[in-house]
Queue: 2 jobs
Job 1
Amino acid sequence: MRDQETEMDTIKDTRHLRHFIGGEWTEAARGETFEVLNPLDDSLYAHAARGSAEDMNRAVTAAKSAFATYRDTLPKERERWLLRVAEIMEARKQDLLDCLIDEIGSPVQKAMFEFDKGLTMVRAAAGLCRNVRGETFPSDRPGTVSMSIREPRGVVAVITPFNVPLIKTTRLVCNALALGNTVVHLPSEMAPHLTVLFAEIVAEAGLPPAAYNVVTGFGHEVGDALTGHKDVSFVTFTGSSVIGQHIAEVCARNKTPSTLELGGKSPTVVLADADLDKAVPLAARSIFMFGGQACIGSSRFYVERPIFDDFVKRFAMIAGKVGMGDLRDPSTVIAPIISERQRARVRAHIEDAVAKGATLATGGGWEGNRCQPTLLTGVTGEMTVCREETFGPVTSIYPIESYEEGLARANDTDFGLSSAIFTRDIDKAMHFARNIGAGMCHINGPTIHDEAHVPFGGNGESGVGREGTDADMEAMTELKWITVQL
Ligand code: NAD
């Protein structure tokens, strides 16, 4: 009895997150909730409504009915709403930062980076409202004006991952809304509060009710009810390759178009003429930021033999100094790994590599839920860490005998998200950029780079399609060909 009372008190005292459907905050239809844990110490962070197919259906129905009028809102209205979203985000910056720190374990440095990026995404989306463009075509039929226009698709399903919830939410939700679509958003079950905060901001900004709807819950319980819904016209998914594959199959049944932004195993090639004073700190940034929980983190380094030992030594020295302190200390870089399941995966990748003969140049241990920055050498093809996404602060460094070997080995993967090369030789750098099987390539820069208006995305196991203002305009609108016979 006493235990039950204590439990009830705890429930009353913690955050309670609800769905946002049709402009109203609502409990789950079945009245169920689930726990959201702070990954730093697995303490209870919040309770959230546990969505079901019924909730999802209500959200899609609301979004569909809102679309009937939202599609005809004027660019100046959508622009004003989105700029207001940006203003309110600035006013609520501390709430968003606290959430990024306590809900998903972002060090404040990463939370600030994400906040700034998110703000830019919203403002860029506001600019998109006036930038929806069609074309005119010559016609072989005399007296004919021939043109294409772009129309919003309808209800867009936005599904976001835990690791950069604000960047993904601001970009994908705001681009969809800027283009005249309405949205149903399923956030990661590990980051629902961030999305609930964003929904509060959208509501305060005065967008029409039901233009933006949020259902919290477990993807495996409610995902299909969203992606397989006949009234959903487009799906944009960011998450793991396994779930992406499933979503592609569900979408195919209804012929629902989609973009898939999935996992990575992004390579960095470092040639002997590289400026190591610049390359090594950037290498460290590209794998240790947010404890390696970045899709575009570099988890493979191919380094030319003459500089291999020096590179490993310098990289290990930086790795040993990467901040692992208080998440609110600006020098902290390493984040807790988000969940016990993901921690088990990171542990298994390191243990498997070491058991099969790899060497730990540094790291390999844990401090609480945080994995130390870990560098592996002597990694071979039969080790899991060589091919699969680890999603932790773990990378492998391989010696190469030539640029050609570096390119071949960088391409020896099923993934194709980001890539990088460090060299002073522009011919090799551009050859690499043109021949790497990745959606993105950075010359003398880290694999981690994103901006609001660039075509961001990958190939193969890393996804299908691109996101960004122009890319989303193409993906989230439907082309219509119109002729006028004069
Ligand atoms: P995840 O695949 O576990 O979950 C992502 C989202 O999918 C969550 O919102 C979840 O609720 C939802 N989901 C789960 N099952 C579903 C289903 N059956 N139908 C519909 N939705 C479902 O990924 P995660 O652990 O949150 O994020 C990490 C992964 O995301 C990594 O693989 C990372 O590389 C990838 N990622 C990719 C990018 C990119 O832009 N390419 C960006 C960030 C993260």
Note: The two ends are 82 Å apart (CA to CA).
Job 2
Amino acid sequence: MRRKIVAGNWKMNLTKSEALSLYNNISSAENLAADVEKMIFAPLLFLDALKQNESGLIKIGAQNFYSEAAGAFTGEVSFSQLKDLGIRYVLVGHSERRVIFKEEDELVKAKVNAAINAGLKVIFCCGESLEIRETGTHISFVVNQLKNNVFQLPEEAFGQIVIAYEPIWAIGTGKTATPEQAEEMHEQIRLAVAQHYSNYLAEQTPILYGGSCNAGNAKELFAKPNIDGGLIGGASLKTADFIQIINSF
Ligand code: 13P
């Protein structure tokens, strides 16, 4: 059985007190599915406070970091500083980092390598734009992101990776991929992992869906054989919705 995971990506939202109370409300819910791994990727600024308040039930992760351990990188936070806070999970390759902050494959790859070498667990995000989907090259585009950003890892290190397929056209737009569209891509991602590494690793690797996944559509998405959970943006900011998504398997 593959791990099931529901992760919330709070993005650049909430004040510190809102973040703490949202975290506490979710983690104190009585009916959270026990067989689902639960994570919250919070703004860097609140990680320390959240970590001190962490319940065993919901892990805290970082949305971003830089690929060097320390040095003259004004405004950045390093993977070693995250580790020092006890953070064990990081997002890498989110399309908002790639598109808005111009993170190219080279940097995404360096961040993947740095995090894995530091013993962090990576949720690697990939996904195509609408333009690419309309040309029909979305599968090769996403497989190339894997080749360029994560397939350099040795087999054992790749075992620390969770993949999140997030089609850019579905993020924050209310326009979710259909379960069939998502399943098609997840199946191809798993095939690419099998071809590059092994069937065993392909079977073990959790592949999450992200992009307007909400309390209303999570059940249908998570019912697909290759969809192992979700990376949730907007709906992770609402306690009841996020709990419902966690309980959607
Ligand atoms: P939304 O769920 O708001 O579409 O965001 C998805 C996402 O980008 C999660 O990382």
Note: The chain has one domain: 4-246.
